[in-house]
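TL;DR need structure tokens for one chain.
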Amino acid sequence: MPALRAGNACPLRSFLNKLVLTSIRCAVPRPIIACTVLGLVITGAACTWALADTTSAGGTSWPSEPPADCPFPRSESLAGIVFTGRHAEYTGADTWYPSWAADGNLYSPWTDGQANGLGSNSGGDDATTGHATILGSDPLNLVITNQGVFKSSPGPYLKNFGEQAYFVNIPSKFIAKDGRSLWLCYAANFSSGWGGITFQSRPPGSRYGLCLQEARLLIPGEVPPRK
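>> reply
TL;DR here they are.
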């Protein structure tokens, strides 16, 4: 089966392993590291479901609305986060936690959907968790392969981001040299349409699957890109 890649090449030249990102709960910058280790690899076909948007309409600033009782002070070094408008989506499964290995590849679990025709479901006594290898250094041009599943139960959703965003993480391979440009990994809208309720795609490109959104952390005085 031929491998289909998403979008035009736009490689990042170097990466960091650390990042200060806005806290999910309080929208206040806190150090986080998103990492999952998975060592099982089974041969398989390359991913054939991918969609990328390589154009940028200027970007979208995400509102900072910490609750009144947030215990952390506002950051003095970061002023906000803006989504650039570039994004890519892969597969029809969720719960991806890409971990960057010494061989340069990303390895990740996944479930509740299909990767290259192989299915995994997290419900019931026969729940399974999938695993796969992610090849490439450009988030807009990745190949997902070596997918497999094993019996395992994977057991928070974010109300506004996504909407219904979950397993939100930042693959360290896709953090730029300046430490402020990055790609956010997540899935969203898992129950859109259920009970007549439709959820928005916030930011644009958010859907059920492996979503990658380019974002930039703003320093005080930095003006977000205009649409």
